[in-house]
Amino acid sequence: MTLRTGGCRCGEIRYELSAAPMFHVACHCRDCQYVAGGSPNLTMVFPADSLSVVRGEPRVYKARETSGGSYFCGTCGVHVFSRPDKNREMVAVKVGGLDDAADFKVQADMWMASAPPWHRPHDGAMQFERTLKRAMSSAIDFDSAAMPSLAAE
Question: Which of 1, 8, 50, 61 places its Cα 20 to 30 Å from the Cα of 100?
Answer without folding.
Answer: 61
